[in-house]
Amino acid sequence: MSDTNTAGRAQSAPAIELKGISKAFGPVQANKDISLHVAKGAIHGIVGENGAGKSTLMSILYGFYKSDAGEIYINGDLTPIPDSQAAIKAGIGMVHQHFKLVENFTVLENVVLGAEDGAMLKPSLAKARDVLTTLAHEYELDVDPDAVIEDLSVGHQQRVEILKALYRQADILILDEPTGVLTPAEADHLFRILGNLKAEGKTIILITHKLREIMAITDSVSVMRRGEMTATKPTSQTNAQELAELMVGRQVLLQVDKKPASPGAALLRVENLSVRDELGVEKLRNVSFEVRAGEILGVAGVAGNGQSELLEIISGISPADSGKVLINGDAIDIGKTANPNMRRHRGIAHVPEDRHRMGLVMSNMAWENTFLGYQDDPAFEGSFGFMRRENIIEDAKQKIERFDIRPPNPRLKAENFSGGNQQKIVLAREIERNPDVLLVGQPTRGVDIGAIEFIHKQIVALRDAGKAILLVSVELDEILSLSDRVIVMFDGAVAGERDATKTNNKELGMLMAGMAGEAA
Amino acid sequence: MNVLPKWVDIILIPLINLLLALIVAGIVVIFIGENPVEAMRLLIVGALGSSYGIGFTLFYATSFVFTGLAVAVAFHASLFNIGGEGQAGIAGLGVAIVALNLDHTHWLLVFPLAIIAAALFGAAWAAIPAYLQAKRGSHIVITTIMFNYIASALLIYLLVNQLKVEGAMAPETRRFAEGAHLPFMHEMMGWIGLSMTKTPMNISFIWALMCCVGVWLLIWRTRLGYEIRAFGQSEPAARYAGISPTKIIMIAMLISGALAGMMALNVVVGGFSQKLVNDPIQGAGFVGIAVALMGRSHPVGVLLAAILFGVLYQGGAELAFEMPSISREMILVIQALVILFTGALENMVRGPVTRLFLSLRRGAI
Known about the structure:
The complex is a heterodimer.
Chain A: H1 2-12, E1 16-25, E2 28-38, E3 43-47, H2 54-61, E4 69-74, E5 77-78, H3 84-89, E6 92-95, H4 107-112, H5 121-139, H6 154-167, E7 172-176, H7 184-199, E8 203-208, H8 211-217, E9 220-225, E10 228-234, H9 240-248, E11 266-276, E12 282-292, E13 295-300, H10 307-314, E14 322-327, E15 330-332, H11 340-345, E16 348-351, H12 355-359, H13 366-369, H14 389-402, H15 419-431, E17 437-441, H16 449-464, E18 468-472, H17 476-482, E19 485-490, E20 493-499, H18 505-512, H19 516-519
Helix pairs in contact in A: 9-18, 15-16
Chain B: H1 6-32, H2 36-48, H3 51-76, H4 84-102, H5 107-136, H6 140-163, H7 185-191, H8 204-221, H9 223-233, H10 235-240, H11 245-270, H12 284-294, H13 299-322, H14 328-344, H15 346-364
Helix pairs in contact in B: 1-2, 1-14, 1-15, 2-3, 2-13, 3-8, 3-11, 3-12, 3-13, 4-5, 4-6, 4-11, 4-12, 5-6, 5-11, 8-9, 8-11, 8-13, 9-11, 12-13, 13-14
């Protein structure tokens, strides 16, 4: 009697239950009091922007990080997971976004690695060969066991990762952005595999920011934003646009005071821009648009749909494969010899998306960052290549005052300013050059509310001065409140263009999720 | 965030590291059966107790300043130039060529030309690894190490087959005539009426001090130094700022090689030998790595660290002479301990010191 009861409980207990998980990295709260239920045999999706805390949460579940607070239950039992060995023991397997395979080992050797039965390799390999054959049969996971990893396609390498987890008897599989590097056909095959695994009673957690995938194969879905689990729903009771809003939306809607635009001639034109990354994946496909004087063109889209590549090509940091970029009607170099300096001389300024890596040299002082990229300006460079420090520091002081950068100390290192003030340093540097074209990426990411308002005002002021502004942001509210026109990027292409005053979150959310047909 | 006061970072931590190294060295001395306090006294007195000792100490320090600056400049571009040894060796060849051809003239002519030759030869030897790093991504650590061996082999080949005095046994050039001898420090002291014991310390020491100033100006006052530092601290930020990685890698390594090359002045036309011998560098290129690490890639730090190593070299030699049970190898062990504690184990002390300061500060508030 009691036996059947226990069995009944075990049956109904969720495969994974997280209670109150929190994790901070220094001042950054990556996970805040997160609770999660995943039923046995379900495919559960977790969506959220980059930096929302998805990967941190999964790393805690897989034993890479130790949570500051909270408990993990596996199949109803409290299971501390101090390291990945414990996670494997608890039946959890993880397929990382960047595969962790030994490139010059065979499939078999990779599968066995770390799970060998003894000092001699042969029996383990023979056993693995049998298991692999069975698994391949059961789940459409066919891979040649003797192939060397570096000769395999990305899709096949991913199968090896899944096989590795299954070989270790994983009942719970975590997949981190599994389709990011796959072709559509490979992705379809992966989903069939996941379906088969589910049919066998495996539990799957799928981390992605592609909403269509969530809608297509998950049973339930959780949305994370800024370290918090903001919603968990059965997939059947939600839709892509609601998820998009939950992911990127922000409750605080800052209304930007701006007059209607009076656009003039096109200052920036982009024609049929295409580029592939080193793996041959298309990052931009035939992207065309124009930005006119006195206009803000917003580029909306879930992160990773080609916006970063677009900014890097226009600003001269990386080359394009084909297409044209015209400034004031003149085509500029977008080949391998492209150079950000030439862009600056042409009046293009660029506030990069990632200010920590690219926009600032964090260990340099504020004044040294207020002329980064303009170091060849005669106002800053004197004779014999010496810096005109007095000029630069004086100029930095003025920028600090005009942009209200706090603390107003040009000798403080960039890393010691708050996010908002760091961003103001970058904006001051770029806007004070009075550029014809301003490229802005994620102007208010990680910036406090007060600074957001200030930054938005500066961008609008530049527009009103008759400049062309290309605004890339994953914050829909920011796009809608700042832009005059909006284009939406999906999978490297422009999925649609809208008048900012005549569209809404819902419609843009549809376009962002790649459902242009339904948005029309 | 940087929580430590600057003086702790620059002075206190290196001193604690040095103290730890000496304590461990002292324990080793006890095991040998000698008195560590007496050994320490002999070492310090031997290095700094007389104008003779000081002269030798600063002679060694001169070499270490050049190789230390070389490593420091490359460090600022986040490049690890381990090839100081080879670059200095090849520069020695350049210096010797100038000296052999012009030693009938005057040092006032030889000195500037030897500086140019040392810089050119040293830079040229650094140029190939730099190019391979910039264009081919071959790791600079590996290539510069390889180039040390090539330089050594090339030098021996040239000494044995081209430069050796006919009929002589030793693989070395002829002794340079008076015109190529750089003025010794005791001679220069004599010019202004001061007397000093005869030591190999020479005018290269002054040139080394000038190079310290020059490197400081370059790194912190010029646009090029700004670009080198930006590249060294964040390559994406440098690319964003239109700074060409290829250009910075090449220039930083050429400057680094030229500085390493200067070291040859001190030992080829500066010291007592006055000829190019086999292995003129004697490991100074490698000591430069420790000097740059300990000096935190700042010219002032490099100068102080170079003098410390000069003390260890000169004092160590005296110590080995006075205490026969402490062999030449024993001195190497002490030097190695200093390198270990100041370079490799630097973070071992940093953690506890940082915690101590944080708790002190909390106590104060």
